[in-house]
Amino acid sequence: MVYDPGAPLILLFNPVSGHGDPQQTRNAIEAACAAARRPLVLRQVDDPQRLPALAREAVALARRERAVVVAAGGDGTLNAVAQACLGSGCAFGVLPQGTFNYFGRTHGIPTDTEAALRVLLSERPQPVQVGLVNERLFLVNASLGLYPELLEDREAWKRQLGRSRLVALGAALSTLLRGHRQLRLELEADGQRQLLLTPTLLVGNNALQLEQLGLAEATAIDQGALAGMALRPLSRLGMLGLLLRAACGRLGEAEGLQRFALRELSVQRVRPFGARRIKVALDGEIGWMDLPLRFRVLPQALPLIRPPGLAPERRAELGGADAPAPAL
């Protein structure tokens, strides 16, 4: 890919994400691009249902104009725009606006809009890993079972109480106390099959998120793999204990968690009632997907405009290390 540092920016802006005033954020974006003399086409996403179509239109325009496609929003917005960018040859930029912003933070992109704009306007594309499940992209994680239910409850709480990490924790507690069903799954990797009874399965593609949970499998992502996690059947009290460990960054010490690195994984539901689809959360956005689920790393990296090397936040998590841990 040939990258022009002065290329126009085609920016999709989701005003619902974030805590600040959307108009102030939009004004800051326009002012920064004007000061840098970077052409800007800003399209506001007023209907989230239209985001995939708007992202495809933005990519088509970017290909004609040799422009950069930029997503301004939470991880779900970033996911939809990145999905449209796959295979297009367009560079991808992000202005994180969500609550956790794991994708931007793991790649050294600040949560502050003005600081993120400086990265967008001054840095060059770097290859970053993308996960796929049934050809759908995920940047942070993909999950099924209890975790999508937790996300649905969290969004309901946020609509009533606002966006904050405390609200997210309260929603998680409410979900766990309500109880949950177990999934009977058949996993296949490297020709080996395993039957698994679990309330939830998560496949991660974000090393920072795993490091902050205290999971050593973060190193697998640095080495081109994905990280799988499944909970063993636990009581409600045991689930609350896991949540507290996760909040303290000590989830890796829990006995009720099965963890593994993977490059490809097939997941089928042992379905006594003939179910052919399952609810899946991709970077916080929930939908239904056909079984079996096939997870893998996308062979072609996503060209993300970001600083080179490890992000400062990740260096801090690794004790100041500049390189990932040795190979698994």
Outline the structure in words.
The protein folds into two domains: 9-129 and 301-317, 3-Layer(aba) Sandwich (Rossmann fold), CATH 3.40.50; 136-297, Tumour Suppressor Smad4. It has helices spanning 22-35, 51-65, 75-85, 102-106, 113-122, 146-161, 165-178, 207-213, 218-222, 236-247, 312-317; strands at residues 9-13, 40-44, 68-73, 92-96, 125-128, 131-133, 136-138, 141-145, 183-189, 192-198, 200-204, 226-231, 257-262, 264-269, 277-282, 285-290, 293-297, 302-305. 41% of the residues are buried. It has 328 residues and is α+β, with helices and mostly antiparallel strands. The protein has a six-stranded antiparallel sheet. The chain has a six-stranded antiparallel sheet with strand order 13-12-11-8-15-16. Strands 2-1-3-4 form a four-stranded parallel sheet, sandwiched between helices. It contains eleven helices and 18 strands. α6 (146-161) packs across α7 and α7 packs antiparallel against α10 (236-247).
